[in-house]
Automatic annotation (TrEMBL):
GO biological process: carotenoid metabolic process
Gene3D superfamilies according to UniProt: FAD/NAD(P)-binding domain (3.50.50.60)
Occurrences of domain Amine oxidase (ranges): 67-562
Gene Ontology MF terms: oxidoreductase activity
Name of the protein this chain belongs to: Amine oxidase domain-containing protein
Biological source species: Prunus persica
Coiled-coil annotated residue ranges, if any: none
């Protein structure tokens, strides 16, 4: 399942630039776990919050309700563990939450997905978790998005053959040959890349039973089917994808630029920094026969709804508006958390942080942090942050053939990771009209992890200088929107106009420097595991293996949940969901 850009593509992480609690959707909030008094609209204002209710303890306390945290908590509840999710905000979902302004329901992050309908060992990790929780996500299916490149603009279709037509028209005959050469080389490797279900992995030696022994036959079969050459290629799965590109002697500029774009959308690095396994998984979902893209009906918030429903169905709890101030460490072990209110919540078995590695570090008492942990966190490079543009407007005057997704690349020579160069646009009301009032559209445009935080550091959000900088830095998004939506679009007629900056990202997502996540390059470093040097403290999310992206963070949450239960419980779950 991809997030736009996230198929195995990464999740984009904006929270609502302007949060209006009086208009928030009520269906997903799990308010029964929080002692708060609903307003007349069903929402809860900050002034109405009281102290944390109910039993102030759980087997496992999960900090944060992002996709990774909810997957972890949901599976733990499925494993019959007493689990409590503590979320600082009034909405669950982290970067994947949705919000409502004047009847326009906006995605804050992920919007391009695939694999919701897949089942079995090769299914997307998020699909496997939802399956384990007995939840399904109704979706609209489609097969294309618009791209606006220096070479021209065209409707790019997924599947094994459609892209060849675009290459013939906008690139060259050589690009067609090289693209075919690339697909012929890597699609057979997808069997090996997908032979080990992420849900089978755990962080201890029990993995020899739940993964290695259980799936050895399918792994062996995939290697046999690939033949000697393919098996040799499979050894590169944990190497940078650029090594495969180079070994195939692919030199066409368009092909190399296109692959860099896909890699960047997937993991925030170009092809020389992304694991081959990640790219091959994405290629398998997008360029094999019968593939399609899927958008959740009712918005990306429907995914969060499903995960929260599954969590509660199995007895798990989620408490919104519960800000964790500190992770409590006693006798060298993580034993719970302290809320901003001062209340202590005990974790009898483990504390799981779904915060970034930098924010998790800030939750720990300085005196208990080993130097190695401190050094690793402080020296890990960060992706930059985001700019966001959320718009609500009348559909009457805009193009009638408007598609859901648009990618604008202004200049290949600057690189896809350059600031102000790549703009992503989603108009989900095209496929799910209920996201906007009748006859209207919702739109989310953003600069994907390329906006330098240092440009914004120290600004007063109420100052005129801050507003001027927002206007200046958002102009590239406005121009991209005008190009995508067509000549009938008018900035002045937009009924909702919200501009989010890296400071918005930092504030609402509580992300250090508003970062997209760790900028870890394959071949040079690897994402940290899920256990930490502090016993009973675990981490999941985009600061851990397998990395950034909706499928990746779902897998990370599952791995932590699996690691906290017995091998027999883990194996029983795999049997129950047929993998």
């Amino acid at each position: 399942m991809a997030a736009f850009p996230n198929n195995t593509l990464r999740s984009f992480k904006p929270l609502s630039p302007t949060f209006n609690s009086s208009t928030v959707r009520n269906s997903v909030l799990a308010r029964n776990s929080v002692s708060q008094v609903p307003s007349s609209t069903g929402a809860v204002s900050a002034k109405e919050k009281r102290s944390f209710p109910g039993k102030p303890e759980a087997d496992v306390v999960v900090i944060g309700s992002g996709i990774g945290g909810l997957c972890c908590a949901g599976l733990l509840a499925r494993y019959q563990q007493d689990v409590l999710v503590l979320e600082s905000h009034d909405l669950p979902g982290g970067a994947a939450h949705s919000f409502d302004i004047k009847g326009f329901k906006f995605d804050s992050g992920p919007s391009l997905f695939s694999g919701f309908q897949s089942k079995g060992p090769q299914a997307n990790p998020l699909s496997q978790v939802l399956d384990a929780l007995g939840e399904t996500i109704p979706c609209a299916s489609y097969d294309s998005w618009m791209v606006y490149l220096p070479e021209g603009e065209f409707l790019s279709r997924i599947g094994p053959t459609e892209f060849y037509k675009d290459l013939e028209k906008y690139a060259s005959a050589n690009a067609v040959r090289e693209w075919k050469k690339l697909l012929d080389a890597i699609l057979p490797l997808s069997a090996a890349a997908m032979a080990l279900p992420p849900l089978s992995i755990r962080g201890d030696l029990g993995v020899l039973s739940t993964a290695a022994a259980r799936y050895a036959p399918s792994l062996l079969k995939s290697f046999v089917q690939m033949g000697p050459q393919g098996a040799l290629g499979a050894t590169k799965l944990l190497r940078p994808f650029s090594e495969i590109i180079d070994s195939l002697e692919l030199k066409d500029p368009f092909i190399r630029n296109w692959v860099d774009l896909l890699a960047f959308l997937l993991a925030g690095v170009k092809s020389n920094g992304i694991l081959s396994a990640e790219m091959i998984y994405m290629f398998a979902e997008w360029y094999k026969p019968g593939c399609c893209l899927e958008y959740p009906l009712h918005g990306s918030g429907a995914i969060v709804d499903g995960l929260v429903r599954g969590l509660k169905k199995f007895g798990g709890r989620i408490s919104l508006g519960s800000h964790v101030e500190k992770i409590v460490v006693e006798n060298g072990r993580a034993t719970g958390v302290k809320l901003r209110s001062g209340q202590f919540i005990r974790a009898k078995k483990a504390v799981v942080s779904n915060a970034s590695m930098w924010d998790t570090l800030n939750l720990l008492p300085k005196e208990v942090v080993p130097k190695s942990y401190l050094d690793r966190t402080k020296t890990t490079p960060q992706c930059e942050s985001f700019m966001h543009l959320h718009l609500g407007f009348d559909a009457e005057d805009v193009r009638k053939d408007l598609g859901i997704h648009h990618i604008v690349v202004n200049d290949w020579d600057r690189g896809v990771d350059a600031d102000q160069n790549v703009v992503l646009i989603s108009v989900p009301s095209v496929l799910s009209p209920d996201l906007a009032p009748p006859g209207k559209h919702v739109l989310h445009a953003y600069l994907p992890g390329t906006e330098p935080f240092d440009l914004w550091k120290g600004f007063d959000r109420k100052s005129s200088a801050y507003k001027e900088l927002k206007a200046e830095r958002s102009e590239v998004m406005w121009r991209a929107v005008e190009r995508a939506v067509g000549p009938g679009f008018s900035r002045e007629k937009c009924e909702v106009k919200l501009v989010g900056s890296p400071l918005t990202h930092q504030r609402f997502l509580r992300r250090n420097r508003g970062t997209y996540g760790p900028a870890i390059q394959a071949g040079k470093d690897s994402f940290p595991g899920h256990s930490t040097s502090i016993p009973q403290l675990y981490c999941c999310g985009d600061s851990t293996f397998p990395g950034i992206g909706v499928p990746a963070v779902a897998a990370s949450g599952a791995i932590v949940a699996n690691s906290l239960v017995s091998v027999s419980q883990h194996s029983e779950l795999l049997d129950a969901i047929g993998i």
